[in-house]
Specification:
Elements (H helix, E strand, L loop, with lengths): L1 H4 L5 H12 L2 H13 L3 H29 L3 H6 L5 H37 L6 H5 L2 H20 L2 H28 L4 H9 L8 H15 L5 H6 L8 H29 L10 H9 L6 H34 L4 H20 L6 H5 L1 E2 L2 E2 L1 H28 L2 H11 L8 H24 L4
Antiparallel strand pairs: 1-2
Helix pairs in contact: 2-9, 2-13, 2-15, 3-11, 3-13, 3-15, 4-11, 4-13, 4-18, 4-19, 4-20, 6-8, 6-15, 6-16, 6-18, 8-9, 8-15, 8-16, 9-13, 9-15, 10-13, 11-20, 15-16, 18-20
Length: 446
């Protein structure tokens, strides 16, 4: 199986790729604006707790399940004896999450390419005007998708692993460069205090629920990505250490992103609660006002692009691996088809920010605009349903000892240390209860 499907060439190849799938726009774009909307440092603390107590146990669960089967996410359920309902909610919906999120995620990745160009040439375009111009957005959307497909065609070790080994360290370097510029701005201290000194009076039930939802989105659980990537994982690799590495790297990028953004926001008297446009609208206006701001802006949006691509390649791989396993397609054919289909499905999202009145004003479940609707339905609701399904399946339907034994292969003391019992409690009770509360809250039923 490893020869036909591919396998990670090294331990850190998998960790970089899995962390890369988690590290993305959710960290550098979404986390900062949610932090700004939810009180700063208090939200950050709650987020860290959510990642460690809920995110990491679920990461371990998906890694073990994926390696146990050695298959794509749909076959993971069917080949372990799951009935059709579990295959649908755990496998088919996971593929739908990755595919449909890919279709609009690459639109946003295309925006980062546009801002790389406008930053370097020092020709800023107001955000609302830029995203409303289809002649800019659609070619850039196509370029982001093309970049993704080319990397995936290269294979597991030669494409995905190699790309992540370059992009992930580069991403950290770019982060530190922009952080240094941001924290040395006059007046940056107020932003640092806002981000690092918690005001616990700002913590509400909504703060906790938002942090939980963001931790799932950011870590990439419920997308089929971790299950798929782990299907290429050698049996002797530690799942516990890998989960901690992935969770830790993902959280580190998110925390560093806030340290990069908020000092600059406060230094120039901007509002931290500007929402989804915080990165593209506020920071794009800040960089031109800095010495060598065009270079700083270019580095920042390059960083954002790298973060996006490390995620999009994993989304293509989730769908492509099913076509490779079940339809016996070549990797090139599978990746190309996924890319073309995502482009067609993604066009309404690309046109939903002013280019088309119909797609821009379309409403569903309280969301306005196709891109926002897609994000809410697939990036939140269905993603949470998949996470819940996976926890219930491994905790109550599949013999949990199979998962524990799989973890034990790379972590021989897992059972004896008592960690297996604690993990089982989280997967059977804590995680499902928490996820149900989050889903009900998101739907306005709690």
């Amino acid at each position: 199986m490893a020869n036909t499907r591919g396998e990670w060439a090294s331990k850190f190849g998998f960790i970089f790729a899995a962390a890369g799938s988690a590290v993305g726009l959710g960290n550098v774009w979404r986390f900062p604006y949610l932090t700004g909307q939810n009180g700063g440092a208090a939200f950050v603390l709650i987020y860290i707790v959510c990642v460690m107590l809920v995110g990491v146990p679920v990461l371990m669960n998906e890694m073990a399940l994926g390696r146990l089967s050695g298959k794509n996410v749909i076959s993971t359920f069917s080949d372990t004896g799951a009935k059709k309902i579990w295959v649908f909610f755990g496998g088919v919906l996971a593929i739908s999450v990755s595919f449909f999120v890919l279709s609009y995620y690459c639109v946003i990745a295309g925006w980062t390419i546009g801002y790389m160009i406008t930053s370097l040439t020092n020709t800023p375009i107001p955000f609302k005007e830029f995203v409303a111009e289809g002649t800019y957005v659609i070619p850039l959307f196509a370029l982001a998708l093309l970049t993704t497909v080319i990397i995936v065609i290269g294979g597991i070790a030669g494409g995905i692993e190699k790309a992540n080994k370059i992009m992930m360290p580069t991403l950290f370097i770019l982060l530190f460069l922009v952080i240094f510029r941001s924290v040395t701005l006059p007046g940056a201290g107020a932003g640092i205090a806002y981000y690092l000194v918690p005001d616990f009076s700002k913590i509400t039930g909504l703060t906790v629920l938002t942090a939980l939802t963001q931790s799932f989105f950011s870590l990439g659980i419920g997308w089929g990505i971790i299950v798929t990537y782990s299907s290429y994982l050698p049996k002797n690799q530690s799942i516990i250490k890998s989960s901690l590495w992935v969770g830790g790297m993902d959280t580190a990028i998110a925390l560093l992103s806030g340290l990069m953004i908020f000092p600059a926001v406060f230094a120039f008297g901007k509002q931290p609660d500007s929402g989804p446009t915080l990165v593209f609208e506020v920071l794009a206006n800040i960089f031109p006002k800095m010495p060598l701001g065009n270079i700083g802006g270019f580095l920042f949006f390059t960083l954002l692009f790298f973060a996006a691509i490390t995620s999009t390649i994993s989304m293509v791989e989730v769908v492509g691996s099913w076509l490779i396993d079940e339809k016996k397609w070549s990797r090139k054919k599978a990746a190309t088809l996924v890319g073309v289909a995502a482009f067609v499905i993604g066009l309404p999202s690309a046109l939903s920010n002013g280019s088309s009145d119909f797609f821009t004003k379309l409403e569903f479940l309280g969301q306005v605009g196709v891109l926002n609707i897609m994000d809410f339905v697939f990036g939140i609701i269905i993603m949470l349903i998949v996470v819940l399904t996976t926890c219930l399946y491994t905790g109550w339907v599949l013999d949990t000892n199979k998962i524990i034994n799989e973890i034990e292969l790379g972590d021989p003391n897992f059972k004896d240390s008592g960690l297996s019992k604690l993990w089982t409690v989280f997967i059977r009770f804590v995680c499902p209860i928490v996820i149900v509360i989050v889903v009900l809250s998101v739907l306005g039923l709690f």
